[in-house]
Amino acid sequence: MIGGMTYTLDSFARACRDILSKADDPQGREQVAALLRDALKDPQFVAAQFSDAPPERRLLYEDPELGFCILAHEYRGEKSSSPHDHAHSWAIYGQAAGETRMTDYSLVEPATPERPGQVRAVRTYALAPGDAHVYNEGDLHAPSRTGPTRLIRIEGTNMDRVVRAKYECVG
Predict the structure, then answer these.
(1) Could you tell me the strand order of the sheet in which 132-135 lies?
(2) For residue 3, what pLDDT is reported?
(3) Which residues, including other chains, have CB under 8 Å from residue 111's CB and lie 6 or more apart?
(4) What is the sign, positive or negative, of the torsion defined by CA atoms of 154, 156, 162, 164?
(5) N or C, which end of the chain has less CB nearby within 10 Å?
(6) What's the pLDDT tens digit per position in 1-11?
């Protein structure tokens, strides 16, 4: 919490903007992840970001100058994603409720427009409530959830407008 006060979406976005305007690099993103971990400790802030109604992915804030976005993801049941990266962007996953099992991958063969890239799993770990993890450009990962989960995700750009390569696991 900022100075003992609870966060609002506006104060949180302003704090993210302050950090990223000075350091939109892996170190700055780690600072944003630390800020997100702190915000996830604030039950009022967390509750205010979720609506208990569709869609699963809700855009909460898009910075008009820097382009980063803050989103709320709410999954009501089991859900898994294929291995992916965030193209030329980055993402920070902040677990608000439930658990996400994340698998990191190493690149075996790059994707082309004609065929998916190939990746190999290197590590699996859990994201529990209060955890926030940075995925920089090119970091390959895949989340899976076995039950209801909520997360707050920060993206370097609005991924709705980005075409991403496809990947398949080869072992």
Answers:
(1) 57-62, 69-75, 149-155, 91-97, 132-135
(2) 52
(3) 117, 165, 166, 167
(4) negative
(5) C
(6) 555 558 999 99
